[in-house]
């Protein structure tokens, strides 16, 4: 029996309305040498019956049936049941465009150092009603290269999870998804990047990423903003220990209450504040817990401090980067955007 080039791993839970289209989108890929390991996670609707029906018609569909475990248990069960050289994630409410598996596996073929690849995605929701999510999709679609992915990992999760494809041996080496009070996809990316795994995207839209109201990332506590910042701060702290020549001191761009709340999680790991940076004249010269607020025009020259930008308002992140780069700051050497 031929070993499949790609194993598509797809957790399924109460998705009878959408799973057929998701299955069809995989079975109609231009890359035919694949298997689809679809895990029914104890559904109470007709999801299991739909998987069995497709499996009876196409031997590439390999359904597994579990008692309800949650998405991490189902995703890892699919990985354990997969035989392919590469492992692709897929969700049962999304649509893979026809060349997704061909182009992503081709990118992995082209560079043996790549351990994880993804792609740009099309937003499959209402841009007016879900403006925040749509803006996030627009942002991840700009993060393509290994360098951009590495330096933007602490802003937000830089991938659409169902768009990723991984080398099987890297899963064995660095571990699959972990379960905990954190987003499992973001934690895996942070863990693999910390281990030096190179990641890149195909610079094409290869997935329609739908945004239904019941999507788990909208409703589960492990996908809240606070959960993202907690796991981010843990990995960011370890990154700073290795890369910040002024550790444990950092300058913090953004002294508003929300910025300070998110930065406080990093302080819990022992990071210390050298100063805050702001542009609000009402804050300049003030003390926050013994740390002076300075105007951004007064930041030290490159090499004299390491800056973390917690400014998150729309457009401000890019403006901060432009300002710092114009002053000679280099991302990863002198500063990081982390919000």
Question: What do you see in this structure?
Answer:
With 339 residues, the chain is α/β, with parallel strands linked by helices. The protein has 2 domains: 215 residues, Spore Coat Polysaccharide Biosynthesis Protein SpsA, Chain A (Alpha-Beta Complex), CATH 3.90.550.10; 113 residues, Rossmann fold (3-Layer(aba) Sandwich), CATH 3.40.50.20. The chain is built from 12 helices and 14 strands. It has an 8-stranded mixed sheet, sandwiched between helices. A 6-stranded mixed sheet has the order 11-12-10-9-13-14, with helices on one face. Strand 2, helix 2 and strand 3 form a beta-alpha-beta unit. Helix 8 runs parallel beside helix 10. The protein starts with 5 loop residues before the first strand and ends with a strand. The mean pLDDT is 95.
Read across the widest sheet, the strand sequence of neighbours is 3-2-1-4-7-6-8-5
- CATH architecture designation of the largest domain: Alpha-Beta Complex
- Per DSSP, what share of the residues sits in E-state strands of 2 or more residues? 15-25%
**Extended strand count:** 14
The DSSP helix count reads: 12
Write down the domain tally: 2
Blueprint of the fold:
Blueprint: E1 6-12, H1 19-27, E2 34-41, H2 47-57, E3 61-66, H3 71-80, E4 86-89, E5 95-96, H4 100-110, E6 114-124, H5 131-140, H6 146-151, E7 165-167, H7 168-174, H8 184-194, E8 198-210, H9 216-219, H10 225-243, E9 249-253, H11 257-267, E10 272-278, E11 287-288, E12 291-295, E13 307-309, H12 316-326, E14 335-337
Parallel strand pairs: 1-2, 1-4, 2-3, 6-8, 9-10, 9-13, 10-12, 13-14
Antiparallel strand pairs: 4-7, 5-8, 6-7, 11-12
